[in-house]
Write a structure and sequence with these properties.
mainly beta, single chain, about 10% helix, 5-stranded antiparallel β-sheet, 2 helices, SH3 type barrels
C-alpha cells in the first residue's frame, strides 16, 4: 500500500517563519514619529525690536526782527507817535539814548535796532530832529531822536511787522570789545566809520563803512589820540578803527 505524503496546513510555514524572525530580532516594528507643528511664540516670547529714544535737546531761542509795513508810509507812521504809545527802533545801528533832548546831551545808553520802548514825553525839536523821552522797561530812560521824515529811526510799534530770524542770529551786546569778537558798526544812522591803515587819526584812511557793517577783531586795543583802536577784518576791508569817542559808541560786540 502506497504511503500518502503528509500535508501541512498552509498557514503553518508562515507562522513558523514569523516565530523564527521574532526570536532572532530580525523583525522590528518601526514607529514613524508624527511631525509636531512649530511652536507659536507667545506674547512674552515675541522678539521685541527696540525703538530709538531721542535725548531731549534745548532748542535755541528764535530771534525776532521787525520791518515797516508798506502802508502807511514810514513818514506817516513816524508822524503818529504819541505819548504813552509803544515805538520800535528802526535805525539799523540802533539809537543813542541821551540825558537831554539834544545831540550834545550826555549819552546814557543805547537801544538796539528793533527795540520796543514806551514814549514818555515829546516831541521836542532840537538839532533838526524831533526828540522823544523813552523807557525800554529795563531801567534805561532818556531821550532819542526820531530821525528824518523820509527814513525815521523811531516808528509806532503797531506799524511794524514782526518776523522770526533763524535761531542763533547774533545780537548787539552792551560790553567792552575783546580780541576775536565779531563787532558791528553802530555809528549814527547815515554816519560812516573811517577805517585806517594803522591806529591813529593821522593814519591813511582806506575805507568808510556804514552802520550795520560787521567785522572780526584781529588786533588791539591800541590807545592813540585819546581813542581806543582795533584792527578789523571784513570780507573786503581790513584796517584800524576807533570804537568810540567816549560819548558815542562806534563799534559794538555781537553775540
Amino acid at each position: 500500500m502506497e504511503a500518502k505524503p503528509i500535508r501541512w496546513p498552509i498557514g503553518l510555514p508562515v507562522a513558523m517563519l514569523l516565530f523564527a524572525m521574532l526570536a532572532c530580532g530580525g523583525f522590528q516594528v518601526r514607529v514613524t514619529p508624527t511631525p509636531k507643528p512649530s511652536p507659536t511664540a507667545t506674547a512674552a516670547e515675541s522678539i521685541m525690536v527696540p525703538t530709538a529714544t531721542l535725548s531731549p535737546t534745548t532748542e535755541p531761542t528764535a530771534v525776532t526782527t521787525a520791518t515797516i509795513v508798506p502802508s502807511p508810509s514810514p513818514a506817516q507812521a513816524a508822524a503818529s507817535l504819541a505819548i504813552g504809545g509803544k515805538a520800535s527802533v528802526m535805525a539799523g545801528g540802533g539809537l543813542n539814548v541821551r540825558a537831554q533832548a539834544s545831540s550834545k546831551g550826555k549819552q546814557i545808553g543805547r537801544l538796539n535796532a528793533k527795540a520796543i520802548v514806551t514814549l514818555l514825553e515829546g516831541p521836542v525839536q532840537a538839532d533838526n530832529y524831533a526828540w522823544w523821552k523813552v523807557d525800554n522797561s529795563a531801567g534805561l530812560i532818556g531821550w532819542v531822536a526820531a530821525g528824518p521824515a523820509n527814513d525815521p529811526w523811531l516808528v509806532p510799534a503797531a506799524a511794524v511787522t514782526v518776523t522770526v530770524q533763524p535761531p542763533g542770529t547774533p545780537q548787539l551786546v552792551n560790553r567792552a570789545i575783546k580780541l576775536g569778537d565779531r563787532v558791528q558798526v553802530t555809528t549814527a544812522p547815515g554816519q560812516p566809520l573811517t577805517v585806517r591803515d594803522s591806529a591813529g587819526k593821522t593814519a591813511t584812511a582806506i575805507a568808510k563803512v556804514m552802520p550795520g557793517a560787521q567785522f572780526t577783531v584781529r588786533d588791539g586795543p591800541v590807545k592813540q589820540d585819546g581813542l581806543t583802536w582795533w584792527e578789523l577784518e571784513g570780507d573786503t576791508v581790513k584796517g584800524w578803527a576807533a570804537d568810540g569817542d567816549g560819548v558815542d559808541r562806534w563799534l559794538t560786540p555781537l553775540e
